[in-house]
Structures are given as C-alpha cells and as structure tokens.
Amino acid sequence: MFDPRPLVDIATAIGREAGALVQRMRASAVVSFDTKSTSTDVVTAADRASEQLVRTRLSELRPGEPVLGEEEGGSVVEGLTWVVDPIDGTVNYLYGIPWYSVSIAAQFDGESVAGAVFEPATGRMWTAARGYGSFLDGSPLRVSATTDLSLSLLGYGFAYRPERRQRQADAWARMAARVRDLRRAGAASLDLCSVAAGRLDAYTEHGLGRWDWAAGGLIAAEAGAVVRLPGSSPELGEDATFAAAPGIADAMHSALVESGYGKV
Ligand code: IPD
C-alpha cells in the first residue's frame, strides 16, 4: 500500500479553500437554495460553487483522477477516486447553524485511504490517513472507552422520504429508553468525526451517499471505532452506516436491530 498522507495534505488544502468560499457566500447575501428529492433535501448555490472549486483544484493538482461529488455525480473506479461532499449539513448551513463541513476523501478501489473534514464556521480540520491514525487540528483522536449501552450517547440522521422518516422516528423513539440520550446534529461527516472524538459513543444512519461517509468513516475507524459501511450490515439494513466505540459496538448493534432499525 502506498503512503496516503500526501493525499490528506491535498484534501486539507482544498477543503480549507472551499470552506472559505462557502463562508463568504453565507455572509454576503440571502442564501439561495433549491430542493432536490423532497422539501427536506436542499442544495444551495454554495454547494454548487464549492464542488466546482474542489473539482477545479483536483484537476490542477491530480490531473486525470476521477471525482465523485454530491452535486455533479461521477462514479467510483478501480484505483483512485476522489469523493466530495461540497457542503455536508446543508440544512444547517441554510439556517446559519455552524455545524456543516466540506468533506473530501481519496478512495482506492472504493475504500477510503485519506480524508479531510473541514468545518468552515469554526476552522476545525479533522483528518485521517489509513494506517496513520486520525486527528483534529493535529491532535490524535480516540473513541470513547464506554462499555455501558445505557450510558451511551447515540447520534442519528433521518432520510428524506416522509414514510421512511416516520419508520426511523419510531425506531429512534424505542432507542430513547435504552441509551443515555440521542442526538440528531445534521451533518453525517461530523457525526462520524464526533464518534472519533468520543463526543458520541455511536452513530448510525440509513441511506447516506458515499460522499457523506467517505472521509468521516475513515476518521472514525482510524480513531478505533467499529465502522460498518453500507452493504456490510444486512441485519441493520443494506444501506446502513454504523460507527461505535468498541466497548458498546455489539450491544448497540443488537439494540438497534431489536428496535426495528433493520426494517426502516
Ligand atoms: C446530509 C447530512 C445529514 C444526513 C443526510 C445527508 P447533505 O448531507 O449529512 O445529516 O442526515 O442523510 O444527506 O445533503 O447536507 O450533504
């Protein structure tokens, strides 16, 4: 395996530049937006501008390497693919809630080897390279040491279709009695980073795009989390993403399945 760390440097440099752009666009005027699949699925002009910038910079620094992005699409190929969420947490961005990111990952044969998740509103940078650990602003990250499901904090996100949201909300309500508390923070990449930092003990969500988990999933795994990506956890659902501190991972996974998450 090649040394993936230079790819992190590229992702962080581009992430910072794109983050500065989305912050300028947030400050300058009314945030214009469209809806996509449903009224809860939004895209702003800043999402599109950020992805354009990231694609331009990648084509300059890594000519010929394919890019999969949330707004312009693309596909994952054998070898290297860049996976970009130009603003993860767009609804937070729209409302001025400072919990959104620019997420950039490099995947090799479909698996993340380098990732950077930049928070434009705070300037915090989360990074990981496969085999080299994960970091917040250069400080190493470690998942929580919790071993007690009933004392764990669980993050979650909702899908866009109303019927599915209802089923998810029902399962979520059942989990409320089994854990310390629940959080729906609104940016999947940062939920995964939160597991890496021990700010959440676990996180799960169904129906994420690859751009939502590609960088954050690596950051969580490199911090010691048990991470299951879409397609690897049929009991929890084919499109489930799951990340948890190892001391509660099995108990959390079972509790989620018992609570009905496998059928949402
Ligand atoms: C969304 C956020 C949200 C999650 C959704 C994602 P976007 O990403 O990560 O937390 O619940 O599933 O689509 O659309 O803001 O990039």
List the helices and strands and how they pair.
Elements: H1 5-28, E1 33-35, E2 42-44, H2 45-61, E3 67-69, E4 80-88, H3 90-95, E5 101-108, E6 111-119, E7 124-129, E8 134-136, E9 139-140, E10 153-156, H4 162-176, E11 181-183, H5 188-196, E12 202-206, H6 210-222, E13 226-228, E14 240-244, H7 249-258
Parallel strand pairs: 3-4, 10-11, 10-12
Antiparallel strand pairs: 1-2, 4-5, 5-6, 6-7, 7-8, 8-9, 12-14, 13-14
Helix pairs in contact: 1-2, 5-6
Task: Explain what the structure shows.
- Its cofactor is Mg(2+).
- With 264 residues, the chain is an alpha+beta fold.
- The protein folds into 2 domains: 136 residues, Fructose-1,6-Bisphosphatase, Chain A, domain 1; 115 residues, D-Maltodextrin-Binding Protein, domain 2 (3-Layer(aba) Sandwich).
- It is 36% helix and 25% strand.
- The protein is globular, with a radius of gyration of 17 Å.
- It binds D-MYO-inositol-1-phosphate.
- D-MYO-inositol-1-phosphate (IPD) binds next to strand 4.
CATH architecture of the largest domain: 2-Layer Sandwich
Mean pLDDT: 96
- Oligomerization: single chain
Shape: globular
User: What's the domain count?
Assistant: 2
Class by alpha and beta content: alpha+beta
How do the SSEs run, as a string of H and E?
HEEHEEHEEEEEEHEHEHEEH
Strand residue percentage: 25-35%
Helix proportion of residues, in percent? Answer: 25-40%
CATH fold node name of the largest domain: Fructose-1,6-Bisphosphatase, Chain A, domain 1
User: Which blocks of ≥5 consecutive residues have pLDDT under 50?
Assistant: none
| Main sheet strand line-up | 3-4-5-6-7-8-9
- End-to-end Cα distance: 38 Å
| Ligands present | D-MYO-inositol-1-phosphate
- At the fourth CATH level, what is the homologous superfamily of the largest domain? Fructose-1,6-Bisphosphatase, subunit A, domain 1
* The CATH top-level class label of the largest domain: Alpha Beta
* Gyration radius, in Å: 17 Å
Query: What kind of sheet is the major sheet?
Result: 7 strands, mixed
